[in-house]
């Protein structure tokens, strides 16, 4: 499903060049739960952003179902991000002035779906994450764990094939972190491909595969069965 071929990403920081990724080759199959681990600055978030279409590689190719997304035009890349992938971030990235329902509905605005259907789909996504009774609450009225579940519902609402989770438990206590990890595992069991960036090795072990990155290079790939 995902094939990364000879991918490098170089940032120009003034006169200095920073190599975030260095000739990475990797394959992630459909339906996998893969955890990307490594120290800060290793390139793990950069890799996720490239596969998620948030950035483009300096060189190399990223194939999704045989199509090189790194060559997509802006319009087609936006469509890929909106329809094929969902993002969950450490900081939740929710609008505090909007209700949980309105936050989840946001990605649907760009999908051309009428308002009534947007509401139905958003309610269904919130029900999937166990927040059917919180649809009218604003993020400031929710716990950290509940806010992250709203974020996951928003990632699910367009029925993507791939869920990207960047340090999804980083702002949560251990109990809520465990609940979020259980939810990600459940989504993977339902057929979603889940790619998670984490510093937490205990959480990484919940994945079926651990991909270790250091200094922009893939160091090791371990399978968990």
Automatic annotation (TrEMBL):
GO cellular component terms given for this protein: membrane protein complex; plasma membrane
GO molecular function: ATP binding; ATP hydrolysis activity; transmembrane transporter activity
InterPro entries reported in the protein's UniProt record: AAA+_ATPase, ABC_transporter-like_ATP-bd, ABC_transporter-like_CS, ABC_transpr_LolD-like, MacB-like_ATP-bd, P-loop_NTPase
Alphabetically ordered keywords of this record: ATP-binding, Nucleotide-binding, Transport
Stretches of the chain forming a coiled coil according to its record: none
Domain ABC transporter: 2-225
Species: Clostridium kluyveri (strain NBRC 12016)
Stated name of the protein: ABC transporter domain-containing protein
